[in-house]
Amino acid sequence: TGRFRKDLWYRLNVFPITAPPLRKRKEDIPLLVNWIVKKLCRKMGKRIETITSDTMKALENYQWPGNVRELENVIERAVINSSGKELKLAEELDSNQTSKLSSDRTKTLPEVERDYILEILEKTNWQIEGTDSTSEILGLPPSTLRARMRKHGIKRP
């Protein structure tokens, strides 16, 4: 709304604090998990007293691309879905997720565009025009889609 005082940033920026990502602070995970579980149990009126070593090991081995916010969301889902006094993860943590993300990050924009066009073409059985077609899903005129297919060397098999 434009009401932030411009000098406030300089008052706050006396000593910058940088925190390493959670994946580099594995020893903090048990402390954070216990704190989050206690906080959520108070909030939800639950009594979770045990976190198995397998659960804690799964949490420690995960790469946490979303940092503490992701950890808190995973724990909240686990608390909601746990019916007894033992914390049970609502979903299995995919340790390969981070490597998938990092491999996607190394692609250039044209490579990502090409892969996405191919993916949608395959889903639509290579239908370029019409209802539920690739051009409709991508939000492109059919002529633009054809031009991009030529640009990326995409040909129907």
Describe this structure in words.
The protein has 157 residues and is an all-alpha fold. 54% of the residues lie in helices and 3% in strands. A two-stranded parallel ribbon has the order 1-2. The longest helix is centred in the N-terminal third of the chain and has 16 residues.
Which whole number gives the mean pLDDT?
87
Which sequence of SSEs, written as H and E, runs from N to C?
HHEHHEHHHH
Structural class: mainly alpha
Principal-axes geometry comes out as: extended
Strand order of the largest sheet: 1-2
Give the DSSP E fraction (strand runs of 2 or more residues): under 5%
Total helices: the number is 8
Percent of residues in helical segments?
A: 40-55%
Residue stretches low in confidence (pLDDT < 50, at least 5 long) are none
Topology, number of strands: 2
Cα-based radius of gyration, to the nearest Å:
24 Å
Q: What is the multimeric organization of the chains shown?
A: single chain
Question: Main β-sheet: number of strands, strand sense, barrel status?
Answer: 2 strands, parallel
Distance between the termini: 54 Å
Helices, strands, pairings?
Blueprint: H1 8-12, H2 29-44, E1 50-51, H3 53-61, H4 67-81, E2 86-87, H5 97-105, H6 109-123, H7 134-138, H8 142-152
Parallel strand pairs: 1-2
Helix pairs in contact: 2-4
Properties at a glance:
157 residues, two-stranded parallel ribbon, mainly alpha, 8 helices, single chain
Condensed summary:
The chain is mostly helical. The chain has helices at residues 8-12, 29-44, 53-61, 67-81, 97-105, 109-123, 134-138, 142-152; strands spanning 50-51, 86-87.
